[in-house]
Amino acid sequence: MGIDGVLEGLERRDPAALARAISLVENQSDGYERVLSHLHARLGRGGSRRIGITGPPGAGKSTLTERLIQHYRGRGLRVGVIAVDPTSPFTGGALLGDRIRMESASHDPDVFIRSMATRGAHGGLATTTEEVADLLEAFGFERILIETVGVGQTELDVARTALSTVLVLVPESGDGIQTLKAGVMEIADVYVINKSDRPGADKLRAEVEVMLGIRQGNAFRHVRAHHAPADRRTAGPPDRPAEGWDPPVIATIASRGEGVAALADALDRHYGALEVGGRLVARRRERLAQRTRAALERGVRQWIAVAAQVDDLLERRLDDVVDGRRSPYEVAAEILDQMKAGAGR
Amino acid sequence: MGIDGVLEGLERRDPAALARAISLVENQSDGYERVLSHLHARLGRGGSRRIGITGPPGAGKSTLTERLIQHYRGRGLRVGVIAVDPTSPFTGGALLGDRIRMESASHDPDVFIRSMATRGAHGGLATTTEEVADLLEAFGFERILIETVGVGQTELDVARTALSTVLVLVPESGDGIQTLKAGVMEIADVYVINKSDRPGADKLRAEVEVMLGIRQGNAFRHVRAHHAPADRRTAGPPDRPAEGWDPPVIATIASRGEGVAALADALDRHYGALEVGGRLVARRRERLAQRTRAALERGVRQWIAVAAQVDDLLERRLDDVVDGRRSPYEVAAEILDQMKAGAGR
């Protein structure tokens, strides 16, 4: 299927064309930018929402995702899922999408599940995930669930591409929220205590609420506002709403579907909060600027790769580097100069 | 301290100059490439060996590192340590270097310990770690231990910059080696079963040995050679020796220092195996080529950043992108063309 065939197939809402388009994007094959450019005008018209779901291994994210799919299907919404396997060497955990694919959602044409591996895509994974989400949005999926086992910076970046991010915790996940390093708690818009019937659920909930300043009331918030300038309530990371939204803590038992409607409701309310005051528009603008920069960086990298004289020069100079006569930095500077000089020709 | 002061201080083996040089490299501050270039001619003369130590949280890597420091100090060798904190949100684990610093090694001028955080350095961490190791080597450290909690691709890449990589496992680490994803087992040259007096140690050892094909003997290896083309014994990843080295499995109780001499001995033997047939030379050449490419990429990124018209153009075109009239890719292509055209001037 050529690029024209893919574009045509996407118009007809042919799942095979979608799968092919995703592969093009994942592998950055010839023509992938043309496909994405073609679809660009259809994006951001509202109606499609991206929800990131992250949390430690074993928190029940895939079960929760499955239940959310059921919930949204019950409301007649089309659901796309991107399951990002962090290829994290020490976490275990089956590939989420693979599991879901086998189960309830597998025969529904209005559900589309795609697994993505970080291996290889490494570095640009957040951008690639966002581009695949664009394909799903243009194809007509109204909820796009982006699931990651958030064990590293890369996976956090992926979760951050979503409009709303859900952090799933479970009572047994080690030492509770103390095992969460800086950066994780701040990204979530909605907290889920899954397996909430297990021992320790109340303690975990209390910990999360204290951290969020819910339990301690205003006095606690006041203290935080003065002593923690990076507090999300007062300043917040640039791509998160700073105020007007108090992240709720939702108790679920995903295996029985309990709390899933409450979670979906919280996500709807978060979307509403984002719409107020044009925050949604501002955020989209910022992400598109980032995306353009990322596309530019990729273009430059490609330009380096295809400029034949770079490899030649590197090969010719490598003996000098190995023998210690010139450093990698000196050779890199020389090649860069030649690129700049040759670029105008 | 200016760059000249740093270079002069490094000549005098002034630890303050070393610390300053490392900060320059970590932050890519002005002059860092000059420092690295200046030292480049001294590197790769033998006598300094880099050892990566990785494994899941709680495996006792920092205790093992501490014991290795003692061992090498007992042999009169100078030891540098780079402890890489993966800033992994869900693993916990205190910063290894911080702990060690407090303890036995802290007053020995021939031991130098540096912690590095991945946050921020993200993407280029392996390169930065390698550059810091270069500083330590040029400063005269004869063993450089690079410790990572290897939970993600980035940390694996860091471990891979070492000449020899040690994977530390413990009986209680979850489901044993089944929790290790693809890529981890292949990177190790030496396996350590730490806390080997605990229940499950024998089982874990057996699992690792089966995986390595030691237990099953030749019949097993034969099967693997036919069915697993990526098997490290037959092909192996490109930067690992494919043959001539059977990774040993060493039992240790790091807290009591047991097995540490055996580990050091295995590392010496691995170095010897690498020296045979010029593999060490070939590997160094490959890494230097990679390094030069990385320096070139950084240079290009910098060039993009300083080219003022890029930001201007992006700002001017962003409305088009937001309104769907042009895609991020079209705008990126336009900017790239302008960069190429303007570069020669």
Characterization of the model:
The structure is a homodimer. Chain A has helices spanning about 5-10, 15-25, 30-40, 60-75, 95-100, 125-140, 155-160, 185, 200-210, 215-225, 260-275, 280-305, 310-325, 330-345; strands at about 50-55, 80-85, 110-115, 145-150, 165-170, 190-195, 250. In chain A, helix 2 (about 15-25) runs antiparallel to helix 6, helix 6 (about 125-140) runs parallel beside helix 7 (about 155-160) and helix 13 (about 310-325) runs antiparallel to helix 14. Chain A has a seven-stranded parallel beta sheet, with helices on both faces. Chain A is about 50% helix and about 10% strand. Chain A has 14 helices and seven strands. The model of chain A is unreliable at about 90-100 and about 215-240 (pLDDT under 50). Chain A is α/β, with parallel strands linked by helices and about 350 residues long. The interface between A and B is large, with 83 and 83 residues.
Structural descriptors:
homodimer; 345 residues; alpha/beta; seven-stranded parallel sheet; 7 strands; 52% helix; globular
